[in-house]
Specification:
Number of domains: 1
Number of strands: 10
Order of helices and strands: HEEEEEHEEEEE
Shape: globular
Length: about 200
């Protein structure tokens, strides 16, 4: 046990110099195409249940690309696809209901799709990303408040990885998903934790 702990500590220490050399700010990043690290990216929705508390569900399995040039942030392009089949609320009955034609109708509309239409920088590490969200066969505009968290080599793959968090809000009834409104809030918060790897 002691040997294992020491080995882990040594490996972590060895990785520190590489991490320290990584670009720490958006302006220092190399331009190019970055691909979503599907295993490390998660989309979460939140609604208010009966006015009492926020209830969450998650969508794993996102795929997509970010085309980025730090010298032309306004021209950045984001294209993300999120499968419906993985929706998870920790309640199996609710999971099945959300996938059914009562809500997302996952058989007919198996994915959500977001494509950016414009990026406006709001700070050294923040931006508003406007785009079109297609969900349940309906396309509506969505603005994400995005924060650049960090960049560095993945400790395992050594590939340059960017980390972002983002928040946006939609009315689910706009997408034909208004069941139980207002018992369950119409306004829905979308929270994203995303990792992108340099292609």
């Amino acid at each position: 046990m002691i040997k294992t702990t020491c080995l882990a500590a040594c490996l972590a220490a060895a990785a520190l110099p590489a991490l320290a050399q990584a670009p720490a700010a958006p302006d220092d990043l190399p331009a190019g195409v970055y691909v979503i690290d599907t295993k490390e990216t998660l989309v979460r929705y939140g609604t208010i249940h009966m006015g009492f508390n926020e209830f969450w569900g998650t969508f794993p399995g996102a795929t997509g690309t970010l085309t980025l040039d730090p010298k032309a942030v306004a021209a950045a392009k984001l294209d993300v696809t999120i499968p419906i089949v993985g929706v998870e609320t920790t309640n199996r009955e609710l999971n099945a209901e959300l996938f059914s034609d009562e809500f997302f109708d996952g058989e007919k509309h198996p994915v959500m799709h977001f494509v950016s239409t414009g990026v406006t920088r709001t700070g050294p590490r923040t931006a508003k990303v406007a785009g079109d969200l297609t969900m349940h066969g309906v396309t509506r505009p969505l603005v994400l408040d995005v924060t650049f968290n960090a960049a560095g080599p993945n400790a395992f793959s050594k590939v340059l990885t960017l980390g972002f968090s983002a928040v946006g809000r939609v009315k689910r009834s706009d997408f034909g998903l208004g069941k139980f409104v207002p018992i369950v809030s119409d306004e829905t918060t979308i929270t994203i934790s995303a990792a992108f790897e340099k292609k």
